[in-house]
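Marked as duplicate of an earlier ticket. Keeping the data here for the record.
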Amino acid sequence: MTYKLGIFGHPLSHSISPVFQQAALDELNINASYEAWDVPPSGLVSRIEELRNPIYLGANVTIPHKESSMKLVDELDPLAEKIGSLNTIVNRKGKLFGYNTDADAFLKALKLMESFEPTGAKVLIIGAGGAARAAVCSLLELDISLLVIANRTVDRAISLGKYFSSSIDVLAIGMNDSRLTEYARKSSLIINCSAMGMKNGSAEQLSPLGSTAIQKGALVCDMVYNPTMTPLLVEAKKSGASTVGGLPMLIYQGAAAFELWTGNSPPIDVMFRAAEKALGVNQ
């Protein structure tokens, strides 16, 4: 039997997860196929229920389903429950388990920048969805001094800020708030957790910040990985900031999911090469 895996979200035309996950499966001679399933919110319940079929090993979950999928699985890993979102579902004999591999992947991506010192940092997060929840949870472990969450819908930013109990100041503002530029200029770490700048998205050509709002020497991370050089990262380069694109985090979270599904150590180098080829990096 050929097992099935996949990713569901909406939209999904930007996703390269099928490319690097299939490369990993093929490298280890695992008889499984990994597909992209574009699932609008109205189809989420039936799509997740289908995962109970023995042919499915599980799935990845992405925008906009990371939070709404929480109540549709049978059991949550403690970290997923703490964060309040999941990105991985594992089928074990018809019982569905939810995990969040985003948080650890985010920290691994940050560690790529050896010059970045999080202690005492002022941080700006853009977005308040599932990816932002994982980032906030991780950041509050890093001894930062200030966290500002900016989101188009202010109530969601406020809700996210209140979700995690913290000893530091957590502020929530709207994307049109006049203070956004002020806080951005003071931030040594800026993270885009929104879909702004994503290929084939509604805001593909847009950056949440211009170069004048980013201080030289800051670290700017964009969780968007396609394109590899997003509008935000272009602006960050202009300002003299250091940058981290979304690809490392994508691979690390995908590798952790791969191990949960298969019980095998993921061939991370193979996954990186396949992803880079799909994105036209170093070609």
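See parent ticket for discussion. The chain has ten helices and twelve strands.
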